[in-house]
Specification:
The chain is an alpha/beta fold. The chain has ten helices and seven strands.
């Protein structure tokens, strides 16, 4: 019960990775405030979570793209628990799929609003609470769109890259308040986002991406439970002092991080950085 006496807010908790994280946190004793746009699905998840005697689970329908809804999430947490120790910014969308100049611009901006501004606004609402406590954990969901070009998913890629730099920047601001801020790349998951790709078809997604998505569906994709386990690690005291990192659930040996805490924090591994010629051994003629 490594999260006993801790309170966590999880957005986008009605399905997929958000639901998996909620289940992992519930098993470890956390008090929970769950939020998502689909109230019916969210209620089903909330009522089905494992819980010990006295362990509370609150839920409310909310859209992180709306400031009033974010304030409602914060207020519910304070009303029910009086504190917030962990924030998981999981809510996110792919946005419009297709060539950048052809997709609907309103939908493109809406994806930025949910993925980036929702993450920023939710964090901004909770940071003052964590500062008063002199403790907190903020866990942001990033993805492959942050670390490599993702043609035909421009809103998603741009917003997720921005989430990583937001993570790094506020992590520096909040380090003296003992608030750790990290981002997770969960891997290619078989969730509703994969369904959207397959529904869009090869013409909109691009043939290569579509074929990879078909293969992912057939092979099962990355593990939801592994990504949830990484979120649990970052929410727990075991990861105290590890901050400002983008961590891959699939590719990084994050279970070993506590043994290398100081070394990780002193370097720029697990971060987004510009690659210069010297990094690749290039020398231009003077």
């Amino acid at each position: 019960m490594i999260l006993r006496d801790r309170v966590a807010i999880i957005t986008g908790a009605n399905q997929g990775l958000g639901e998996a994280i909620a289940r992992a946190f519930a098993r470890e004793g956390a008090g929970l405030v769950l939020a998502a746009r689909d109230a019916a699905l969210l209620q089903t998840v909330a009522e089905d979570l494992p819980r010990a005697a006295g362990q509370k689970v609150e839920w409310l329908r909310a859209d992180v793209g709306e400031v009033s809804d974010i304030e409602a999430i914060r207020d519910r947490a304070i009303e029910a628990f009086g504190r917030v120790d962990i924030l998981v910014n999981n809510a996110g969308v792919y946005g419009p799929i297709g060539r950048f100049e052809e997709v609907d611009w309103v939908e493109w901006c809406e994806a930025i609003k949910v993925n980036l501004l929702g993450t920023a606004a939710m964090s901004r609402a909770i940071v003052p609470i964590m500062k008063r406590q002199s403790y907190g954990k903020i866990i942001n969901l990033s993805g492959g769109g942050a670390t490599a070009a993702l043609p035909r998913f421009t809103a998603y890629a741009a917003s997720k890259a921005a989430v990583v730099r937001l993570t790094e920047t506020i992590a520096e601001e909040l380090a003296s308040s003992h608030i750790d801020v990290n981002a997770i790349a969960p891997g290619a998951l078989n969730t509703r986002l994969l369904d959207q790709v397959l529904e869009a078809g090869a013409e909109r997604t691009g043939e290569d991406f579509y074929q990879r998505s078909l293969k992912q569906r057939e092979e099962g994709g990355a593990s939801l439970e592994l990504a949830a386990e990484l979120a649990l690690f970052l929410a727990s005291a075991e990861s105290d002092g590890i901050t400002k990192r983008l961590i891959s659930a699939v590719w990084d040996d994050w279970r070993q991080f506590p043994s290398y805490r100081e070394r990780i924090q002193q370097g720029d591994v697990f971060t987004l950085r510009r690659i210069v010629p010297q990094d690749r051994g290039w020398e231009f003629d003077q």
